[in-house]
Structures are given as C-alpha cells and as structure tokens.
From TrEMBL, chain A:
The lineage of its organism: Bacteria, Pseudomonadati, Pseudomonadota, Alphaproteobacteria, Hyphomicrobiales. The keyword Transmembrane helix applies. It is a multi-pass membrane protein. It comes from Stappia taiwanensis. This is Branched-chain amino acid ABC transporter permease. The keyword Transmembrane helix applies. GO terms for cellular component: plasma membrane. It holds the Pfam family BPD_transp_2. Keywords: Cell membrane, Membrane, Transmembrane, Transmembrane helix. It is found in: Cell membrane. Its main location: membrane.
Length: 358, 319
C-alpha cells in the first residue's frame, strides 16, 4: 500500500535508468543516510569505534568480495591478504609522502591491492571453481608471509607491526590513536557511501553485466562477445581495489596498529561468511551480512548477561562461532540468496499489502 | 653471480657435504607428507563418493583427536576412549549426512564447499566449547604406540635419528590405504560406493541407497581423520592450529588428482618432502618460513601444466 510504484510514470530514459527508480526507495535511502549522519549525536564513543566504524569498513570489504564471488562467480579465499596489501601499501605511502593527504593515500593503496589481485587472478583464465580457490589460498599464505618477512614493509619496526601515525584531514585529526571516534566515523561513512555508489553504477553498467554473464555461463558469454580475459581480470582488479581500500581503512580508522596476523585466513573467511549470509551478488546484502556477523557476537556478549545467562567472554565467542557456522549451512539450504533475498521478499509483501496476493 | 651460486649450486654442495642431514630432512618431509596424505585421503574418499569438496576434513582430524584425548582426561581408559571416539565420528557422519548433505543434494560444487566451510566453523566452536581451546597432549603410550627413537650410524658420515612413532605412522598409513583398497574393491558396500561415485542416478536406479552410502563414506573419512589425529597429535600437540595445516591437503590433491587414492599418497609425499627440503636448503635465502606457502606455489605451477593432477581421472573443465 505504501510501497508501490503505481502512478510513478517515467517520461525520459534518464528517469527510467536511475539507480532508485521507485520514489519510496529514494526516500528510504535518504532517511538511512540522514540517520547515519545523525548517529554520532546519540551513539557513545564505544558504539562508534567498536561497532559502527568496523561494520562500515567490513561491509566495504564484503562488497569487494561480492564483486568477485557474487557477481563474477570466482571464489576467493584470499580477501584477507588483499586487504593486507592495501593496509601495508597505505602505511608505506603515508610514511614516504607524509605531506600528501591521508585520504588520497587510502584511495591510492587500493591500486597496489588491485595489482596483487590481477597477478593472483591470472590462473583464473585457465581454471575455475575449487582449483581457483587453491590459487587464492596461495595468495593468502604467500602475501601473509611477505607481511612477516619483508621488514621494509613495516619500516624495520622491532615489533613487526604497523602503527598508524596521526594525520589530519581539513584540520581535524582522523587517524592515529589520538583521533576521535566522530571524525573517523564521518570519514569512513563518506568513503563507504561514495564507493558503494560507484560500484553500484559499475555493476549496473557494461562491465558489471559482463561479470554476471561470465558467472552465469562463461562459454555463452564468450560467444556473445565478452572477452573472458578482460572480464575476469577486471573483476579481480576492482574487487581487490575495494578490498585494499577497506583493508587500509581497517587499520587506519579502526585498529590503529596491525600485525600480519590481522590479515590471516580467518579474516578471509569472516568476509566470505558476510558475503554468503548477506547474499551473494547483492550490495545491500553485503551490509546486512557485515552487520550480522560483526554485531552478533557483540550482541551476545552484551545481551546474554543482561538476560541473566552467566557466560564467560571466551565461551560467547565460541558459541557465536558455532551459531555462525550453523547459520551458514542453514542459509545455504533454506535461502541461498541470503538476507538480501529476505529483504526482497519483504519488499514484495509490502507492495501487495494488505492483500496476500497482487 | 653470488645470488645464482646461492640458488643453483650452494644447496647441492651442502647436500653432498652432509648426507646424513639430507636424509634426516627427507625423512622429516616424508613423515609430514604421510600426514598430509592421510588428510588428503579423507578428502578423496568423500570427493569420490559425493563430489563434495570437504573443507572440514582438517577440523574433523582435530575433533577426532580432541574427543579421544578429552575422553581420556575424563578418566575413560584409552581403549574405551578409542572406541567411543570412533562412535563419535559415526554420529558425526550420520548428522552431517542428515542435516547438511541431504538437503543440499544437487547444488553446485561451490555451494557445497561453502557449506563445509560453515561446518568447519561450527565444529571449531563446538570443539572449543566442549574441550577448551588449549593444546592437549596425545595419549601416545596409553594407546600402545611406540615412543622411542633409533639412531642409525652411517659409517663415518654421522647418524640419522628415526622416531618410532613416525615409523608407526607410515606403517599405519600403509595399512589404512591397503584396507581401503580391499574395502573398495572386494566388499559389497565398496562396490556400491564405487557405483555411487560413477553415477548417482544410475546407482539409485539399481537400488543403492544414496543416503546410507554417504553416511558410510563420511564415517570412513571420520576414521581416517581419527588415525590422522592420533598420528599428528603424537608428533605435536592436538590443537586447533592443525586446522590451518590441514589446508595443505588442497595442494596435495591438486598434485595427486582429486579422485585418486594413490595420487593422494604420492602427492602428499612430494609436498611433504618438497617443502622440507625447500625450507632447509633454499628458505634461508629469502628469510625462512617459506614452508607456509611453498606447497601452494608448487600446486599453482602444477596447475598450469597438468590440471588433472598426476593420477586424476578426467581433465577438468578448461576455459
């Protein structure tokens, strides 16, 4: 009743091709954006730093993986390593060129991750499926080894970790240990929103359609004029770029300092789970999945004692892991398209409400 | 020039200079390879019968080892703990078949792979909740496994030390492969398993119960996992770190072919020996620690030339 496109006539091609063709969607997105902007007014420093910022960054990483796995159909288990490439190159850039704005560095660091992604994506031209998963595992372990052994990457620190220096953005400290949650939150929000918008357009356009054609049937796609080489490698490049930016942000705006273990295969799996639970091949699903997997353990840690269940912090983590594992299987069985599909079903119901069928 | 010398000549000079050390290194690699091969064997069993790439084999190894040690710590005698651990693997197999495999029949490979990754997470959480996260000592001597070591003198050239448990591991692996070969080729169930591996639909139409077969295959993989867990646990501790090591079975499988049991064994040995020798003689040139990725890179290079593996049955779909 409220969510219905009836009466919204499109009179130009431009109007027909806009990102959100339904007025209610535009209003909804506007409301969400305004709420996101107003969040620091009500949220505590903990909520911003420990929930909102990592959620947004991990959602961006999930989008990156979704480009590769969800849209182009190439399974990757090396997301964590590509995020690491972004983080380490950003660190190097910031220390070599301290006078350049840190945001520029963060966006540039994705380029290095993209290069790494293309190199390790090369085998995808000959193999696919499980075999490709193994080559991405090679990327994961090899790059992780590089982060540990090549001490040039962390400026010969004794600790072997990268520590983020304080950097300003228009006079406000946005990185480093002294930066406040609010300023970091706004920078992260801006980058994530802009990148999501860009990716949305990329996916709607020629390149994104090529990715989906390759995913659905590579031979048919090739016969229809899609070059697999270009399509696959561009998917690897864009995906790794996004993951690299997310990785740089993960260290610069959330962790503050990072050792190689941060970018281990655990992170790769975590992001993969976010993509699966959220829904492969869906941008809004990436946000759902990231919210679900990041916030569920926190909610359990805070919520269970409040309910009177006495449980150790360690056990909460383990139980959360069990729940997530079980949910992965549940989703794959019951709803392979993830939370995004539930969202779509919900919208469909709203459209015909109050009638059960249209 | 120096660099070339270090890469191409120096390692071999070292090998000839100290053959006892070389033999020791190869033996260490051989034993590691046997363990990789055992894990890969579990993968192959399931892949052959159901086409599922079982990512959870590594955690099954940990889980089997943990239940054995955990039960013993609770005061159960070793032999009973072993039987109970086998029982636990059987229950696990039935549960996996009933709650994971059956509802997902006919889904694409990738979906099944991701389901087994989910299973891995579930089992890690479950194992930590039940047994705790800290590493545990394997009950080697209680199970009647040898613990000593023998030193072989090589004339003037020094000596090579062999751990008895490693020899036992190799023998048990050999027996297991022999047993599986007999099981596959000589028994009624084994024939049914091969029929299912060949063609699900044809097997169904001659009256073979797919569900039952899958439960049996997962159980067999569970037994292999238990043996692996005991052997590996005897060399180091039983801990969840094993789960990452178990991923090495993937390059092993690429080398050996996904459907071949001899392939799993030989692939495991090549990877095991290759990475030990590579680490000792070439690893120092790049700062050491190359063991963690060398196996994957070997597999990557292999993929470019022979994608079906050494003994694989069919050529995988090329693009």
């Amino acid at each position: 009743m409220f969510y219905r496109e009836a009466g919204q006539y499109k009179t130009t091609y431009a109007a027909d091709q806009q990102i959100f063709p339904i007025r209610q969607d535009r209003i909804g997105i506007g409301v969400i954006l305004v709420l996101a902007l107003l969040l620091p007014l009500v949220a505590s420093e903990f909520m911003l730093s420990a929930i909102a910022i990592p959620f947004l960054i991990l959602a961006l990483a999930t989008i990156g993986l979704n480009i590769l796995t969800g849209y182009a159909g190439q399974l990757s288990l090396g997301t964590g390593a590509f995020m690491g490439v972004g983080a380490y190159s950003c660190y190097k850039l910031v220390t070599i060129f301290p006078e350049v704005n840190v945001i520029v560095h963060i966006l540039l660091s994705g380029v290095f991750a993209a290069a790494a992604g293309v190199v390790f994506g090369l085998p995808s031209l000959r193999i696919k499926g499980l075999y490709l998963a193994v080559t991405t595992l090679a990327a994961q372990f090899f790059l992780e080894w590089c982060f540990i052994r090549i001490s040039w990457l962390y400026n010969y620190n004794a600790s072997g970790a990268i520590e983020v220096p304080g950097r300003e953005f228009f006079g406000t400290l946005v990185t480093g240990p002294a930066a406040g949650g609010i300023s970091r939150y706004y920078v992260v929000l801006a980058i994530v929103v802009v990148m999501t918008l860009l990716i949305k357009n990329l996916i709607r356009g020629r390149i994104g359609r090529q990715w989906m054609m390759i995913r659905d049937m590579d031979i048919a796609a090739e016969l229809m004029g899609v070059r697999p080489l270009v399509a696959k490698l561009s998917a690897f490049a864009v995906s790794s770029y996004v993951c690299g930016v997310a990785g740089a942000m993960f260290v610069f705006f959330y962790l503050g300092a990072a050792e190689p273990a941060v970018f281990s295969i655990t992170l790769s799996f975590q992001v993969l789970f976010m993509a699966i639970i959220g829904g492969l091949g869906s941008l809004v699903g990436s946000f759902f999945g990231a919210a679900f997997i990041w916030i569920l353990p926190i909610l359990m840690r805070v919520g269970l004692p409040a309910l009177g269940v006495d449980i150790a912090a360690e056990t909460v983590f383990q139980v959360a892991q069990m729940v997530i594992g079980a949910l992965i299987i549940f989703f794959l069985i019951v709803e392979p398209h993830g939370l995004a599909r539930l969202w779509a079903i919900g919208k469909e119901k709203l459209r015909v409400w109050p009638f059960p069928y249209a | 020039m120096d660099m070339l010398y270090n890469i191409l000549i120096d390692p071999f000079v070292q090998m000839v200079d100290a053959p006892d050390f070389l033999i020791q290194v190869v033996w260490e690699g051989f034993v590691a390879g046997v363990l990789y091969a055992l894990i890969a064997l579990g993968f192959v069993l399931i892949y052959k019968a159901s086409g599922v790439f079982n990512f959870a084999q590594g955690i099954m190894v940990v889980f089997a080892g943990l239940s054995l040690v955990g039960l013993h710590q609770k005061g159960v005698p070793a032999w009973l703990a072993l039987i109970l651990a086998i029982g636990i693997m059987a229950i696990l197999a039935v549960c996996i078949e009933k709650f994971v495999m059956r509802p997902l029949v006919g889904q694409p490979d990738i979906i099944l792979l991701m389901a087994t990754i989910g299973m891995t997470y579930f089992l890690i959480g479950l194992g930590e909740v039940i047994f705790g996260g800290e590493p545990k000592q394997m009950i080697t001597s209680e199970l009647g496994l040898p613990t000593g070591s023998t030193a072989f003198e090589m004339g003037e050239r020094g000596l090579v030390i062999l751990q008895h448990i490693d020899i036992a591991a190799a023998v048990i692996a050999l027996l297991m492969v022999g047993g599986l070969a007999v099981f596959f080729n000589r028994t009624r169930i084994g024939r049914a398993l091969r029929a299912v591996a060949d063609d699900h639909t044809a097997a169904l139409s001659v009256g073979i119960s797919l569900n039952q077969i899958w439960a049996i295959v997962w159980f067999a993989a569970g037994i292999v996992a238990l043996a692996t867990g005991i052997m590996w646990g005897a060399r180091s501790d039983v801990s969840f770190a094993l789960e990452i090591v178990a991923l090495k079975a993937l390059p092993v499988l690429i080398l050996g072919g996904f459907t071949s049991i001899p392939g799993a064994i030989i692939g495991g040995l090549i990877i095991g020996i290759g990475e030990k020798v590579g680490e000792i003689y070439w690893g120092g040139l790049v700062g050491g620690g190359i063991e963690s990725w060398l196996a994957y890179v070997i597999a990557l290079v292999f993929l470019l030339f022979r994608p079906q593996g050494l003994f694989g049955e069919k050529i995988i779909e090329r693009i």
